[in-house]
Amino acid sequence: MVDYTNVKINKNIKHIVGNSFREEKCVQGSGELYTENHVHEKLLLRFFLSGLESNPVEYRFYHEINLSDNNVFRITNNLFDNNSDFISYSIEYMQKLHDATRHPRLQIADLFVVLFEDVIYNDEITNAVGLFKKEKTDMFYNTEDGIISFNKAKLANNVDWGCVILNTDRKYGYTVHLIDNLKDKNLYEYWVENFLKVRKKRNDRYITEKTVDVIKKFTDELRGNEKVDFVKKSKQYFNDNNSFDKEVFVEDVVNDNAKFNEYWQDYENTNDILLDDQFDIDKTEVKKRSRSLKPVLKLDKNFRVYVHGGSELMERGFDREKGKYYYKFYFEKER
Questions:
Q1: Among 3, 44, 160, 309, which one is least packed by beta carbons within 10 Å?
Q2: Average pLDDT score, the chain
């Protein structure tokens, strides 16, 4: 678990990054930025970190060949090892972001590079690097003479995208928390894939997410009563157990074992992932993912029926006269 409650800003600088696709240039910051008082530092922290979830998903840096070839990972290593060259390394971040900024919809933006201290991660105090991007529209802050100040009438603003890189698990690509306040998938991918190059960490939360995704997609292969009962039993299994065992799940929940195991294998091959047969269930992830795990009966293009209970109050049949299938639903009163 991570706790940013007592986090402090050690160093902070702002650069301006143009769109390399339009041959826009970068403008290097003249030096580190400071706040006038404790209140403004709190406002600045809120500006940087307000998009973080209370229990953020964990990512890590990666590279197809060698992790050390990931540019942001390499710069971060150097910065953690020698923060006296903070400004030089912040310029390297700026240059790499400029190289990655090639989408025609991306505008000139401010890039804040921040060195944090007193972050608590898994009950230990560590430092962190923050990278935050804000396109230069409707600005609510001002930076002059090395001082950052705020227009309090516009405090609802926050960064567009950001990341916090915790100084932990270096050899595995660190622990990275992402911020996405724009919710624009196409533009966000440039930040995640083209600039940072990060993937979700392989932990219980990640495996829980992928396993529930397999179950959700397998649900689409089922029909009628079988679909309804499978979803109901799947949810019950994750609610009643703290750990997942594929063999037990298949025995207790699945009607067609061979079909499910084949689908599981196809999912692994299609997504280039190896799922665990046994793991500790992340209840937070189950709660989040189970919202989309619903037995929906899609009947031609006319009906979509959401079934919240079991199949004991529904019947499926075939009307020979009309040449069509039908469902019967039994209920006490219409709401």
A1: 309
A2: 88
